[in-house]
Amino acid sequence: MVVALDDNGEWITAYPATIGSEHTPTPAGKMQVTAVAHNPTYSYDPDVNFQQGANREKLTLPPGPNSPVGSVWIDLSKPTFGIHGTPDPSKISKTASHGCIRLTNWDAEELAKMVTKGTAVEIVD
Fold it and tell me: What mean pLDDT is predicted for residues 27-33?
């Protein structure tokens, strides 16, 4: 679950989320938002990211709601990790991501309006 807090530590909202799998867990710890990208291009580099099946090639996929990262990417200070949307909302509330925090596109878009560069993020195990 992703919980957004106000400056006083009070709950603003909460969203069901998918977290990393046993193979590629979501990293716990304190981080910051470094950027928010709407309609992001999806880039995959097997030398930097998780191993995607037998693929050993770099990929760049066009933006859009059917992108693997959905309609918004909230970049975190932990390299290659972020909070993002998904083209498949039926997979929310599972432990099935490659380490990122996955929300529905509509929840990720709402959260993206609440954060800016430097917003504190804490992932609790």
Answer: 96
Can you tell me which residue has the tokens 């959260």? 111
- pTM summary value: 0.86
For residue 69, count CB atoms less than 10 angstroms from its CB and return exposed for 0-12, middle for 13-18, buried for 19 or more: buried
Contact call for residues 1 and 26 (beta carbons, < 8 A): no
- What's the token pair of residue 51? 């191993």
61 has a pLDDT exceeding 80: no
- Catalytic residue list: 84, 100
Domains defined along the chain, listed by start: 18-123 (2.40.440.10)
Alpha carbon distance 105, 89 (integer Å): 8
Band the pLDDT of 68: cuts 50, 70, 90. Answer: confident
CA distances from 37 to 11, 52, 55, 60, 125 (A): 24, 23, 26, 15, 26
Contact (Cβ atoms closer than 8 angstroms) between residue 4 and residue 12: yes
What b/e readout covers 30-58, taking b as 16+ CB neighbours within 10 angstroms?
ebebeebbeebebebeeeebeeeeeeeee
